[in-house]
Amino acid sequence: MFFRQISSVDASSNRGHVAFDFLPLKDGQLLDLGNVKIRVLHTPGHTADSVCLLVTDLRRGDAPWFIVTGDTLFVGAVGRPDLAGREEQMAEQLYDTLHAKLLSLPDQIEIFPGHQAGSVCGAGLSGKASSTLGFEKRWNALLSKPREEFVAAVRAVPPRPADMERMVRINCGLAA
């Protein structure tokens, strides 16, 4: 079974959009895997359903160790907000998500994004596979921009891939 973030308002709203079963996740939900605890953070902005997974390994301590940021935060960049067709609204949500949910976490938390350099899911992605929140706060120029400048900057991403609709269908299990 796959996990997929569904809005906590209506968990059934995306059932017809994918060809596989999934367990809806909710913001703040804790996945208890024994010594490993995963906190689900709903992080809209790249898409309405984006999530980040904050991981704590109790063998290492009680504090979170790393976060899987998917397409929300990259090394050197942030996710593109234009895939849903509501670029400005999504860019504003991405700003809010980053500042309210991710940048408030401790600097030493490692980040593991969904892509590195070469991906069109953002502009300016580093080739480095991971970073820390502290490093990104200091060196990722988008994270220090005021809201209006951030929104303008993240809307200036490369054009959507020509076969974007096909990729979405494949990701949803609807086409090969």
CATH homologous superfamily (4th level) name: Ribonuclease Z/Hydroxyacylglutathione hydrolase-like
Instruction: Report the major sheet.
Output: 6 strands, mixed
The H/E string reads: EEEEEEEEHEEHHH
User: What name is given to the CATH topology?
Assistant: Metallo-beta-lactamase, Chain A
Radius of gyration: 16 Å
Number of helical regions: 4
CATH architecture: 4-Layer Sandwich
Mind telling me the CATH class?
Alpha Beta
So what's the oligomer here? Answer: single chain
**Class by SSE composition:** alpha+beta
Kindly give the count of domains: 1
Strand order of the largest sheet: 3-4-5-6-9-10
| Mean pLDDT over the full residue set | 82
Residue share in helix:
10-25%
Count the beta strands: 10
* Shape field: globular
Q: What fraction strand?
A: 15-25%
Tell me the distance between the termini.
Answer: 19 Å
In the predicted model, the low-confidence regions spanning at least 5 consecutive residues are 1-12
Notes on the protein architecture:
The chain is α+β, with helices and mostly antiparallel strands. The protein has one domain: Ribonuclease Z/Hydroxyacylglutathione hydrolase-like (Metallo-beta-lactamase, Chain A). The chain contains 4 helices and 10 strands, in the order E-E-E-E-E-E-E-E-H-E-E-H-H-H. The strands form 3 sheets. A 6-stranded mixed sheet has the order 3-4-5-6-9-10. Strand 3 (30-33) and strand 4 form a beta hairpin.
